[in-house]
């Protein structure tokens, strides 16, 4: 067996997994950075994205369209939730209320999905144009996973450039540092919050659409993924965008390699990694200690 | 002492309940009391230290699995098995508490969550011992010591659970009203000030996490011996979320509130799941409504309505329980 090719295939497999995790984790970390909210509903938002995406494909037959429709629909749902519910709690001293409220949303939203789409899993095929197999160093590798890696890199670079180079990105970073000051300088901070919450949800939805062909859309696909995303965000440092990228790659490698070499320990490895990071650096790799 | 009368009346009503309800309701009643105890244990953290644990399922699961293993492997009498299981849970809680209390707020929630999920993962790693996804089935309810057998039947077991719940309540009530409890209130209201007054708040927090695990472990132990099985779902984070909902809806920081919350939700779930499959939707909606409009919970509303002191159990608690049971 070609050892080098095998290693490469494993790494690519892990990177494609990292891409999907990154789509969920980057939204989670941005929302936390801006609002100090841990969005427990993020996994269900991801699931909603998958269902909306699969339905779009079923109706229109276009995978490309589903990559656009699902983030818009789910982003709108997220913004509505922020406007109607979360806004009520901004005045409260007790940060735990957000945790509770978003958990409540997760319960309600996952039930609504069950009522609308039923309990049966929805299978989604890989679109024809991405169905091929690429041979890398004599190892066959699915084209769809390469597509995921490319999309993940593109998204990471775009968001990074957006945060660093644009005025809106500057505002987001400013609100994360000192929202009162930004407000006093005449910016509508509420609008920034709604926008970031909606954007985070849209990214998770995109992750859901992309994951659906690999795992099918099923109830409960959000419950484990949200925990993975938490682990990533905590490892990387809560609120740190670059941290969420590093965390996604680390966790994906631990998951993929762990599943191959130590099947029983794969699940536990991720938590060990997280606890180790936290014991050494309580704020995460790139986070601030608080 | 007013609260003693009310406590006595409530306890009396609970003692008489098995004679007033049909046998099948007794099963629900036992589960309700167990969940009440579980919710009360979490209240020590959420209500008194404002430490939001999102991994309290770990306490429940540890208690249940230790009971399952002790009763099937060592075959001691039931009370000794339960006591041993609680001790195991407490021992396991010490390192967990030590690490988790390094942080507060959201990081604390995430750390507790990570430990519970780690426990969940470990069940699959050591499937020779834990049975993996099948869990442990056929947990016996052995008799003794001294030839006592009354708790083997369903009615007897109800009294065992009731005794544990009332005893735990009195113990927790004494704890939160002691000087120790006053320091906890200080941590909740202003930790920096409490530290400035010379208290090592970390030690108090560790002690409280361990206590909460102990009572949570007792609930898990009682559940395992009652249901006769322990499954990995007991460790899963949805259980932690569920019990947190019960604490908040019942009224955090009151001990009685969470007990009511637990009892209330188990009954509501049992009744509603027979007529509609929309139960989780209702559960979630009620929860959102409470978080937004009534953060003081059921007990907070009741006590302000009847204008009683928040920590004094009045007759409303007995009424609530019997209404729910009917």
Your description of this structure?
The complex is a heterodimer of chains A (290) and B (326). Chain A is mostly helical and 290 residues long. Chain A has a domain at 11-118 and 135-220. Chain A is 74% helix and 3% strand. Chain A has helices at residues 3-35, 42-60, 63-84, 96-117, 143-165, 167-177, 179-184, 189-215, 221-236, 241-261, 266-280; strands at 133-136, 139-142. In chain A, strands 1-2 form a two-stranded antiparallel sheet. In chain A, helix 2 runs parallel beside helix 4 (96-117). Chain A is globular, with a radius of gyration of 19 Å. The model of chain A has no long low-confidence stretch (mean pLDDT 85). By secondary structure, chain B is mainly alpha-helical. Chain B has a single domain (2-325), classed as ABC transporter involved in vitamin B12 uptake, BtuC, CATH 1.10.3470. In chain B, helix 8 (179-196) packs across helix 9 (201-227) and helix 10 packs across helix 11 (256-275). Chain B is globular, with a radius of gyration of 19 Å. The A-B interface holds A 32, 36, 38, 40, 85, 88-89, 92, 94-97, 99-101, 103-108, 110-112, 115, 223, 227, 230-231, 234, 238, 264-265, 267-268, 271-272, 274-275, 278-279, 282, 290 and B 46, 50, 52, 54, 99, 102-103, 105-107, 109-111, 113-115, 117-118, 120-122, 124-125, 127, 237-238, 241, 244-245, 248, 278, 280-281, 283-285, 287-288, 291-292, 295.
Features:
heterodimer; A: 290 residues; mainly alpha; two-stranded antiparallel ribbon; 11 helices; B: 326 residues; ABC transporter involved in vitamin B12 uptake, BtuC; 14 helices; 2 strands
């Amino acid at each position: 067996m070609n050892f080098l090719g095998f290693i490469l295939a494993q790494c690519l497999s892990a990177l494609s997994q990292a891409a999907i995790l990154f789509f969920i984790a980057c939204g989670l970390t941005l929302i936390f950075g801006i609002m100090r909210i841990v969005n427990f509903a993020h996994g269900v938002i991801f699931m909603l994205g998958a269902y909306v995406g699969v339905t779009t494909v079923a109706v229109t037959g276009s995978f490309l369209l589903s990559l656009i429709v699902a983030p818009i629909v789910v982003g709108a749902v997220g913004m509505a939730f922020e406007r109607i519910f979360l806004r009520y709690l901004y005045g409260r001293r007790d940060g735990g209320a957000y945790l509770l409220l978003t958990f409540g949303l997760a319960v309600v939203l996952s039930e609504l999905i069950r009522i609308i789409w039923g309990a049966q899993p929805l299978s989604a095929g890989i679109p024809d144009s991405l169905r091929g197999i690429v041979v890398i160093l004599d190892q066959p590798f699915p084209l769809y996973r390469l597509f995921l890696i490319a999309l993940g890199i593109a998204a990471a670079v775009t968001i990074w450039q957006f945060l660093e180079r644009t005025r809106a990105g500057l505002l987001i970073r400013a609100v994360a540092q000192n929202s009162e000051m930004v407000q006093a300088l005449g910016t509508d901070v509420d609008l920034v919050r709604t926008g970031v919450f909606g954007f985070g949800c849209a990214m998770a939805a995109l992750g859901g659409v992309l994951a659906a062909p690999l795992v099918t859309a099923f109830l409960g696909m959000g419950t484990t993924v949200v925990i993975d995303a938490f682990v990533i965000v905590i490892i990387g440092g809560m609120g740190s965008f670059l941290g969420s990228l590093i965390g996604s790659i680390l966790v994906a490698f631990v998951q993929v390699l762990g599943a191959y070499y130590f099947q029983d320990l794969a699940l536990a490895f991720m938590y060990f990694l997280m606890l180790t990071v936290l014991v050494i650096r309580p704020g995460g790799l790139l986070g601030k200690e608080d | 002492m007013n609260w003693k009368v009310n406590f006595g009346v409530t306890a009396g009503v609970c003692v008489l309940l098995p004679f007033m309800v049909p046998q099948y309701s007794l099963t629900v009643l036992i589960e309700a009391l167990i969940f009440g105890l579980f919710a009360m244990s979490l209240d020590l953290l959420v209500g008194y230290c404002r430490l939001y644990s999102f991994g309290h399922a770990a306490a429940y699961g540890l208690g249940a699995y230790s009971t399952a293993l002790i009763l099937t492997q060592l075959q001691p009498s039931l009370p000794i098995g339960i006591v041993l299981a609680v001790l195991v849970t407490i021992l396991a809680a010490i390192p967990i508490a030590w690490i988790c209390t390094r942080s507060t707020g959201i990081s604390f929630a995430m750390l507790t969550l990570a430990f519970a999920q780690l426990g969940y993962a470990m069940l699959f790693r050591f499937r020779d011992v834990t049975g993996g996804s099948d869990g442990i089935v056929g947990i016996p309810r052995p008799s003794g010591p001294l030839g006592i057998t009354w708790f083997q039947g369903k009615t007897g077991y109800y009294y065992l659970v009731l005794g544990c719940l009332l005893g735990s309540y009195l113990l927790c009530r004494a704890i939160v009203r002691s000087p120790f409890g006053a320091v906890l209130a200080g941590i909740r209201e202003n930790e920096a000030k409490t530290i400035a007054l010379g208290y090592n708040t970390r030690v108090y927090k560790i002690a409280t996490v361990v206590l909460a695990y102990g009572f949570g472990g007792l609930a898990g132990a009682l559940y395992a011996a009652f249901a006769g099985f322990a499954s990995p779902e007991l460790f899963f984070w949805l259980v932690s979320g569920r019990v947190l909902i019960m604490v908040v809806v019942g009224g955090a920081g009151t001990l009685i509130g969470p007990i009511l919350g637990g009892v209330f939700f188990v009954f509501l779930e049992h009744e509603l799941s027979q007529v509609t499959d929309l139960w989780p939707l209702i559960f979630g909606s009620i929860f959102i409504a409470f978080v937004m409009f009534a953060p003081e919970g059921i007990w907070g509303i009741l006590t302000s309505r009847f204008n009683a002191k928040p920590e004094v159990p009045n007759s409303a608690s007995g009424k609530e329980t019997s209404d729910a049971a009917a």
